[in-house]
Amino acid sequence: MSAQPVLRVSGLDVYYGPRHRRRHALRDASLTLGSGEVVGVIGETGSGKSTLARAIVGLVRPTAGRVVIDGEDVTGYRNRQWRSLRRRGVVQYVFQDPLRSLDPDLTIEDSLVEPLLVQGIFRAEAVTRARAYLSRVRLDEELLRRLPGELSGGQRQRVSLARALVAEPKLVILDEPVSALDSANRVGVLEILKELRAGGVSLMFISHDLGSVAGLADRIAVLYQGALVETGPAEEVIARPAHAYTRLLVNSAPTLRSASAGRAEREALRALLGT
Ligand SMILES: Nc1ncnc2c1ncn2[C@@H]1O[C@H](COP(=O)(O)OP(=O)(O)OP(=O)(O)O)[C@@H](O)[C@H]1O
C-alpha cells in the first residue's frame, strides 16, 4: 500500500431541504481509504450511504468538511473542475441503477470507448481496451453492438462496471452494485470485484447487506442515521462489533451470525436502538 491514501474524507456534513425543514443527512463523516484497499460502507436504507458517495464525487455539496482524492483537495470544486477530474479518470462513481451510468442511445461499444476517446486515446486502441474490459466482467463481445435497453439487468450492471474501469481510475465508488441482482449474478459480480481487488483497484463498496460486503472489504464503515458510528478492519468489526447497530447487523446476517447469537439478543438490540 502506498503512503498516500487514495481518499481522505474529514468532517463531512450534508443537509437537504430548505433552511426551516433541513434534514441532516450526513453528520461529521470521516474516512480514509488506502491505495488498493476495499472499504465497505454499510447501513440501512436512508442512513446516508448514497449521500456520502455523492458528496465525495461532487454530486452533492457538503456544508462542512473536506474531501481529498489521490492527494488533490477537491473540496469546493466547481462542475467544470469535477468534469476535468472525471475526464482524467481519477475517480468513477457507479450508480445504483446501471441505466443512469449508461447513455440509452449509445451502443455498449460507444459507451465503453467514450471515456478513453475524451482522454485522447485513438479509437482502435480504445476498442481493444473496451473488449478487454468486457471480457473482464465476463460478457461476450457480441453485446458491443447492442443498446443498454437490449441487455438484462445483470448484463447492464456489468457493463456499467466495465465503463467505470476502462479508464483505469484510482478510485471506484460502487453504490449498491449487487442489490438489484439475482443470487447467481450477485455471486458473479462479487467474484469480479474480488479479482479487481487482487489487481489493486481501490474500491468503496456501498451496500445495505453486510453479508455481501464481508468477503470483499478490507475495512468496514458503518453508517447509522447519517453518522459513521464504527470503522475498522472487516474481521474485527464482524468479530467484535462495538456499536449496538453493528451488533444488530452482524447478528441479523445469516451467513455471519454466530451460533450463540439469538433472536432475544436481536430484539434487545432493537429496543436499545429504538427501532
Ligand atoms: N435530494 C434529496 N433531497 C432531500 N432529501 C434527500 C435527498 N436525497 C436523500 N435524501 C434523504 O437523506 C437521507 C439519506 O439518504 P441516502 O439516499 O443517502 O440514504 P441511503 O443510505 O443511500 O439509502 P438507500 O439504501 O435507500 O439508497 C434519507 O433520509 C433521504 O430521504
Automatic annotation (TrEMBL):
InterPro entries: AAA+_ATPase (IPR003593), ABC_transp_ATP-bind (IPR050319), ABC_transporter-like_ATP-bd (IPR003439), ABC_transporter-like_CS (IPR017871), Oligopep_ABC_C (IPR013563), P-loop_NTPase (IPR027417). Residues 9-250 form the ABC transporter domain. One of its GO terms (molecular function) is ATP binding. Pfam families: ABC_tran (PF00005), oligo_HPY (PF08352). It comes from Amycolatopsis pigmentata. The keyword Protein biosynthesis does not apply. Keywords: ATP-binding, Nucleotide-binding, Transport. This is ABC transporter ATP-binding protein. Belongs to the ABC transporter superfamily. The keyword Magnesium does not apply.
